[in-house]
Amino acid sequence: TQNKTIVVLPPTIKSLETNISEISLAKGTTKSISITATLSDGSVKDVTGNAVFISDSNGDGLYDENIISVGNTDSNWGEIKAKSQGSSDLKITVNGTSITKKVTVTEAVLKSISLGEPKSTPAGLPLGITAIGTYSDNSTQDLTNLISWSVSGVGFISNTGSFLSSGTGSSTITASFGGFSSSKSINVLPPEIKSL
Question: CA angle, corner 155, sides to 152 and 161, nearest 5?
Answer without folding.
Answer: 85
